[in-house]
Write a structure and sequence with these properties.
Residues 1-20 form the signal peptide. With 485 residues, the protein is of the alpha+beta class. Helices cover 36% and strands 31% of the residues.
Length: 485
Amino acid sequence: MKKYYFLLLSCCFMMAHIQAQNNCEINLEKAKLLLEKDSPFSDQSELISLLEPCAVQGYSKSENYLGLVYLNGIGTEKNVDKAFTYISSAANKDYANAQYNLGRLYKYGIGCSISFKDAVNWFEIASQNGNQRAAYSLGYMYFKGYGVQQDYQKAVYWFERSEDAMAKHFLAISYYFGYGVSANENKALELLLSNPTINSETFVTYIKANQKQLNEVAVEEALDTNISTDSTHIESEIITDVEVNEYSDFLTTDTIEGEWTGKLIQYDWSGNYIVRILPVSIDFVTNNNNIEIIVHVNNQELKSSAQFQDGNVYVDDLTFTLKKLYSSVPNELSLDYTLFTLNLQEKEYLGNTYLTGMVDTFIDSWTEYGQPMSVVLKPKGVKTEIDDEILEALAVQKDQFIKLYPVPFNEQLTVQYELETVSDVYVELININGTNKTVIQPIIKQQAGEYTYSINVDSSLPEGLYVVRLKAGNQLYTRLIVKEY
């Protein structure tokens, strides 16, 4: 008899559980209707009453949707803390969509501290559970080196594991240019033509115009003629086994004073291949550590005030426009690059003195740092041309030692770097004018390895240009970033 009652209670419980699930599914569908533009419902505040009871009971789909409602402030006041709580709860119940969303929260520091390690972890879990967008997101991070070591092969690995349209698009780009795979134009076209996105359709027009080949034909002219040559595109690997004398001391304003001419070099995202060479001239007019900088590039004359510290020229307000080498976005044929920093160094090669250095830029429309760039400059009037041999010797692009996220920053800032040897390390954030200093890491001995700091930024900190200064042993590294309200 007891066994009979036990079975009866078990059946009742199962039926109640199934009914509760059915009710949650019904309410979830009603909530989805509310979010549609053509929904017959008008009161989006009803979303909470539809989703919250099931979310409180631990129904993962309702938790995820309720988290998104709070995240976007739909029908209720925006609350990123509640969004994180509900989405993370659903993610821990193995719901793939929530796992992807949790990865995005960690990536951007919404309701939590920015953590690319956690973002990558949740993207991987979501991908293993079938979320296609998560696999694409991982590929994109590896493609551009955001929060991870830039790696085309890993990017391709994740693009190939996703049916997301943008993953197929970036996989096609990888095959076309040979990023992480052997270049295969036919494979690229096959992927693009079968991919129903405007991005792929736009890129097909680039291929049909034969633009890649036209750019490559022009590269020899850029290397063999003087600086008046028009901009060109090249896929040329950088050779580094050449002898160059580097001056270890920081530059002074007296060293850089005057007009310099040469080349602005743009690289692919790995920093290993030159993709464009532009003629450039830069005139430095110095007054102690204050500088006026006049740049001529791509038929544009640009002027800005700047500051000179630790061998770096920090530019106040200078933006130049470059035509995109290829476009995947209709009507986006060019990009505006804001020049942040010229990290200059004096070098000697074959008896001649040059200024070389990394160029740090920011693309406002993408809210991302630009592709790696560098300059090779000689004093105006020096007859020696900057040919391919000199570029091979001097145009060695080093990876940025300090990586910063997000760009611009507001409430949070993540600082990432990797030490090759044991070092005494000190890290600070300081306004470009030398005020509002925030110590990120007091001096400490650190072992070789990768380090990441996520700091909450004082809301009273003024907007403007800031420098992250990192001293490791006797080496000083800096990176410029913008704070906005």
